[in-house]
Specification:
This is 3-oxoacyl-[acyl-carrier-protein] synthase III. The protein has 336 residues and is an alpha+beta fold. The protein contains nine helices and 15 strands. A hairpin with a 5-residue loop joins strand 14 (319-323) and strand 15. The model is unreliable at 1-8 (pLDDT under 50).
Length: 336
Amino acid sequence: MTDKKSVSSSAVGIVAMACCFPEKILPISEICLQEGIDPDFILENELDIGQVRVFEGEWRSDPAVAAAKECLSRAGLKPTDIDVIVDFSVLPQDYVVPAWSMSNKIQYDIGAEHAFNIGFGGGGVTNLLAAFKFVSALIKADDGVRTALLIASDVSIPRNRVINPDQPMTILGDGASALIVSDSADVLEILETEISSDSSRHDVFNIPGGGLAHPDRIDLYRVKIDPLKYSVSSSFDALKQLSRKAADLAGISLDEVNHFIGPNISGKDQSRFAELFHLSDADPFGKNRRQYGHVQATDLVINLSDFLEKQAGRMREFGLVCSHGWGHSSGAMLIK
């Protein structure tokens, strides 16, 4: 039985975070050899990724179970304290989605018997921001919901780590993450979350094979990004507008935001973030990108964890967590 709370006074935030990465490390040179790509081509496209982690287990949901258990431990909570579980994964896991959701299995594996489950898909890294927006609103509005567990596990399709080999845009690593969001948070408060979707780019990021479009084309069962539908300028323009809107709703200027936390897609992508937000430190989380590659929305959890470590003992400052979602689904979340 949860305590009653006031919608107007509830401050919702992130209580704990945890990531789980496979032990096996695969250097970029070996990935290029496996996928028939010239390593110099990777350098030419300014990906700035040195290695990735590779999952070799049976069930792709297992890393998310481990991350969830670690996150609960860090928060000092029991599985029965969880009211809702949200899956923000991007890539397919144990079974075909959306007929199956990993959040259902996580509930069973950790024993969160009081929770209900939901999943967000189709938004790339912005899946996590959609999850934040949903649980923040739900916790503030529903007296029966106080604590949410957000989880993801993303494992690459075999021989599909270099996305768009003819014009490489990123290199995928494997990993999982979990976060606890609650109205009793005193660590990282979620102030505003703004999201927008451009439906004309609904298929900019997709796996063409294996679905109804090409049910028998297993050769097309691989992630691709349509370069004709991904517009750098419009994607980053949309992100800037959302960021300003989030700041306005919080009653501050975007100039008052001290930290900008984005995904680890590539060195080139980060340079665009730095230019967009006039960052004094152009690549604050570059070591994470070089060590793990692009692990979908788990990128944000890795970088948020770094952000918290750097802020330990300091006066609380504003931060913006953002994603362009390859132009289809953009999001900006203001934190403090």
